[in-house]
Amino acid sequence: MKYTLGQLRKEYPNDEACLDKIFQIRFSGLKCCPKCNNDTKFHRVMNRMCYECQHCGYQIFPLAGTPMEKTRTNLTKWFHAIHMMTTTRNGVAAKEIERVLGCTYKCAWRMMHQIRKVMSDGEEGMLSGCVQGDETLIGGVQRRKDRESDGDNKTTVFGMVEEGGKVIMKKVEDRKRKTLLPIIEKYVEKGTHIVTDELPSYAKLGKEGYTHSTVNHNQDEYVNAEGKHTNTIEGVWSILKRSISSTHVWVSDTHLPKYIDEFEFRYNNRRSGAPMFEIILSNLSLPLTRVDKETGEVITVYQQEKQRA
After folding, report:
1. pTM, 2 dp
2. Number of C-beta neighbours around residue 294 at 10 A
3. Which residues contact 108 (CB under 8 A, 6 or more apart)?
4. Local structure of residue 32 (DSSP, 8 states)
5. Could you report the per-residue pLDDT of 71-102, keeping only the tens digit for each?
6. 162 exposure class (CB count in 10 Å sphere: 0-12, 13-18, 19+)
């Protein structure tokens, strides 16, 4: 479903409209004040990014715990950046965000990394049916003789795609069985038909409760006798690498998982009935956690607000 820039500007012409949207997403179900325990309505506080209880004046800050927390950048620019990141196939560069929004490169880069944090619902679920698995190398030029050890300048990414469904990708240390098998067991249901190449790491999948087929690429085989292939996951790698090399030019090993999450989000929502922009906004309502500095306990933002009250 298309969501144009004109629609975005019409729905969110100013920061007030953006803040109202975030408040509705995160706190529309909050009918009782956490402080005075009265049924209440929260009203916007003028010149502040918060809403307060009509009875006791208890204030709620909708941006707390979101990527926009403590931001000095206009919310309209945040919404515009989210729109740009969700209306492209190969991603958007921070320099492009900088030019379009008129902010600094440092600001654009930080905004994009913050937005990538909500490009996931946190529950990837299990793959089933027929799943294709493969691994690829991301990074600089690698000599052929170094491929056995993956090379110091390469990062290994392992991916699994459900035919006609979603993809799950993870940055991994290497392509060994002890590394790949636990990931497969975590994200693929037992009894699933898994198709891979002939990498020895996959050799014992048949003994782990899966149906396993292979495609011998070394013999120029791309569809085996059963009609199974790994072309879908190969296509995923093609788009991912094109996104990195053409849009971002270079991605560090440290931040690569964030870019993987962004691409995974875009791929998995390619057939969604709702615009990806709306999906990202809805993800702001997911339980947000913080670590209490005194106790070390992981608590939600709502629990934190109740403790303050």
Report:
1. 0.83
2. 6
3. 81, 94, 95, 97, 98, 101
4. B
5. 999 999 999 999 999 988 888 999 999 999 99
6. buried
